[in-house]
Write a structure and sequence with these properties.
Helix content: 25-40%
Strand content: 25-35%
Distance between the termini: 49 Å
Order of helices and strands: EEHHHEEEE
């Protein structure tokens, strides 16, 4: 039975068994150069056809797995602009983080960093620091930070929820 190997394109191409390789090798060794080229072309054609049929069988399975593993992005009801305080903002970030599926060994703490006054809004910056402390090393040697920004518009009605953005440290992608 042939096994498959993953190529850079992500598809699974079946590999010939050891006995198939030995059989082809012995046939090639006993042939002259002209016959050897013809045999090589035939082998390449067979492997290509096997690869195509294996890929066609593999793609529906891959699509099915992709549909099953799509994660649902959870959100919370964010506070309105007129009810906002720095401490409520921090608690809301903690509530939002509690919806994430994170292994229990990861611990975090959050802090308010600064308030930023803009022409049409006010921004409140927070940092959530993650680490995995252990019994041997309760003070972690490595941490990962997520930076949150809660923005309150000066133009939109204060009864609307605040806007929240976050970025992972050393990443420029802004999540909303």
């Amino acid at each position: 039975m042939a096994t498959g190997s993953k190529h850079s394109l992500g598809c699974c191409v079946p590999q010939p068994t050891l006995s198939q390789c030995i059989c082809v090798f012995l046939k090639v060794k006993t042939m002259d150069k002209g016959e050897e080229n013809a045999a090589s072309k035939e082998k390449a054609h067979i492997l290509t056809e096997n690869g195509r049929s294996g890929t066609e069988e593999y793609l529906p399975e891959l699509e099915k797995k992709e549909k099953e593993t799509k994660s649902v992005i959870k959100n919370i009801q964010w506070i309105t602009g007129n009810n906002f305080t720095v401490e409520r903002g921090r608690r809301q970030i903690e509530e939002y983080i509690s919806t994430w599926d994170v292994h229990r060994s990861w611990l975090h703490w959050s802090e308010f960093l600064q308030e930023e006054e803009l022409k049409y809004s006010k921004r409140y910056h927070y940092r959530v620091c993650w680490s995995v402390p252990t019994r041997r090393k309760p003070i972690p040697q490595a941490t990962a930070s997520i930076y949150f920004v809660i923005e309150i518009s000066k133009i939109k009605p204060a009864t609307l929820p605040v806007e929240v953005f976050f970025t992972l440290e050393s990443s420029r992608l802004i999540h909303r």
